[in-house]
Amino acid sequence: MQKIVPLLAAVAVVTCSRAITAAQGGNRRPAQDPHDQHVRELERQIDQLHSLHRRSEFEIRRLESNVRQLESQVHRELVNRGDGAAGAVLFLIGVFCALWAQNTNRNSWLWFFMGLLFNFITLLVLLTKNARDKNHKRRNNLRST
Questions:
Q1: 106 in the Ramachandran plot: left (φ > 0), alpha (ψ -120 to 50) or beta?
Q2: At a CB cut-off of 8 Å and minimum separation 6, what does 108 contact?
Q3: pLDDT tens track for 92-110
Q4: Tell me, what's the pLDDT at 1?
Q5: Which of 78, 101, 102, 112 could form a cystine bridge with 94, CB 3.0-4.6 A?
Q6: Cα separation of 38 and 86, whole Å?
Q7: Distance from CA of residue 23 to its chain's centroid?
């Protein structure tokens, strides 16, 4: 109980002093604190950053929309033009593989369809086999002489 009385007295003094201060200077503005100016400047900069962020998001959405439009235009052009050129290239790769197979005594139909279906992979395998064949022929020629 003895500890509570001084505590209540201190609370009463603080409350009364706040009430008196509010009554005397309620209409007056407190003196400007330099920290208040700094806080207001930071708040202004934050508002500018928010505005810049909103404009950036709008610009990003606009650019994404443009990209989608361009992608759909490219897709339409490819569909309208058809894949005739790509088909011709695949056919020519198949023909080249079949011709190579025929010249090296391999199954030309097998190599034609492999070239047609697996085009670039088949070309790599073909080049590897061709290099091995040439190395094998060189070795045989060296042994025979």
A1: beta
A2: 98, 99, 101, 102
A3: 999 999 998 998 899 999 9
A4: 47
A5: 112
A6: 66
A7: 62
Tell me how crowded residue 130 is: count the other CB atoms within 10 A of its CB.
Answer: 13
User: CA 94, CA 87: separation in Å to the nearest integer?
Assistant: 11
How far is Cα 23 from Cα 27, in angstroms, rounded to an integer? 9
Residues in the chain: 145
pTM score above 0.85: no
> Locate tokens 């930071």: which residue?
42
**3-state class of 75 per DSSP?**
helix
Q: Which is it for the CA torsion 28, 32, 33, 35, positive or negative?
A: positive
Which tokens is 127 given? 């080049």
Helix ranges restricted to H, the chain: 4-25, 34-81, 84-103, 108-144
